[in-house]
Design goal:
The protein is mainly alpha-helical. It folds into 2 domains: 117 residues, no CATH class; 76 residues, no CATH class. Helices cover 44% and strands 3% of the residues. Strand 3 and strand 4 form a beta hairpin. The protein is elongated and about 125 Å long.
C-alpha cells in the first residue's frame, strides 16, 4: 500500500560538507565508508541496530570504535546520530511548509475562478417570460428570438455559367461565337498551358478581341490547328494568306505588240 504524501519520507538528506570533513578528519578511508553506510541506513530505517553482527553486515566489515562514537544510544535502546536526526526534523518542517503553501495557492486559484464565473453577464434569453402586451387584430404573435445552437448554413446562389465562357469568366466574342471557334480557343489555351504560357484575364480578353477582328469564324479553327502544328507562339495565317483563300493570279503585263 502506498504511503500518503504527508507521511512519505524524504529520499535524501543534506550533507554539510565542512562539518563532515571536520568530523572525519582523523578517520581512515574504510572508516569513512562505514560511517556513510550507517548514516544512510539510519536515514531510511530511523536508526542502526545495536547488535555487532548486524552492524558489520551493514558497514561491510568490522565497525571501529571511532565510527560507533558518532552514534548515541537513545531511550528505545537503538543507536542514532543526533545531527542526522536534527536534519530530518528540519527537512520535515520544510516539507510541511511547502505543502501548506501549495494548498493555499490552489485554494486562491479556485476562489478566483469562481469569482470570475460569477461576474460573467448572463447572455442567455429568459424563455420563461411571456409578453402580456395586447396584439392588434390580424397581426401575428411575435415569437421569442434566441440563437440556434446549429444554424443552417446559407448557401451562395451562383449564377449559371455561360456556354460561351472560355476561361476566367471571359466569353467568346460575338464575331466568332460558334461551337467550332469555342473548341478551337480551348484547344489553343491548352496548348499554351502545356508550354507554360497561360493567359491572364486581361490578356485573354485582348487576344480574343484581336482574333475576332482578324479572322473569320470559318477560318479560325484551321488557323489554330496550323499554328499549333507549327509550334508558333501566336495565331498567324500560313504564309500570310488565310486558309481557304487562293492567291489572285498575277496580272499579265501588256505587250505593245499585242495591240497591233
Amino acid at each position: 500500500m502506498k504511503e500518503k504524501k504527508t507521511t512519505r519520507k524524504a529520499p535524501a538528506f543534506q550533507l554539510y560538507t565542512d562539518d563532515f570533513l571536520a568530523g572525519t578528519l582523523e578517520m581512515s578511508q574504510e572508516e569513512v565508508g562505514q560511517l556513510i553506510r550507517l548514516l544512510c541506513h539510519q536515514w531510511n530505517r530511523g536508526s542502526i541496530p545495536v547488535e555487532t553482527e548486524k552492524q558489520q553486515r551493514l558497514a561491510g566489515g568490522c565497525v571501529s570504535v571511532d565510527v560507533l562514537a558518532k552514534f548515541d544510544e537513545c531511550e528505545d535502546g537503538l543507536l542514532r546520530n543526533k545531527r542526522l536526526e536534527s536534519v530530518r526534523t528540519e527537512k520535515g518542517i520544510f516539507l510541511q511548509q511547502q505543502s501548506q503553501k501549495g494548498k493555499l495557492s490552489a485554494e486562491k486559484r479556485r476562489l478566483a475562478a469562481l469569482a470570475a464565473l460569477a461576474n460573467q453577464p448572463d447572455t442567455q434569453p429568459d424563455l420563461n417570460q411571456v409578453s402580456t402586451a395586447v396584439q392588434p387584430e390580424g397581426q401575428p404573435i411575435p415569437q421569442p428570438e434566441f440563437n440556434s445552437p446549429s444554424p443552417s448554413p446559407i448557401k451562395d446562389i451562383k449564377t449559371p455559367k455561360s456556354e460561351w465562357e472560355v476561361a476566367h469568366g471571359v466569353e467568346l466574342p460575338e464575331l466568332i461565337r460558334t461551337q467550332n471557334c469555342l473548341a478551337a480557343v480551348k484547344l489553343w489555351l491548352q496548348y499554351k498551358s502545356e508550354k507554360r504560357e497561360s493567359y491572364k484575364k486581361t490578356g485573354l480578353t485582348a487576344a480574343l478581341t484581336k482574333w475576332s477582328r482578324e479572322f473569320t469564324p470559318a477560318e479560325f479553327p484551321s488557323i489554330v490547328e496550323h499554328s499549333i502544328a507549327s509550334g508558333w507562339k501566336g495565331l498567324y495565317r500560313p504564309n500570310g494568306v488565310a486558309l481557304g483563300e487562293q492567291k489572285a493570279p498575277a496580272k499579265k503585263e501588256l505587250d505593245w505588240r499585242d495591240s497591233i
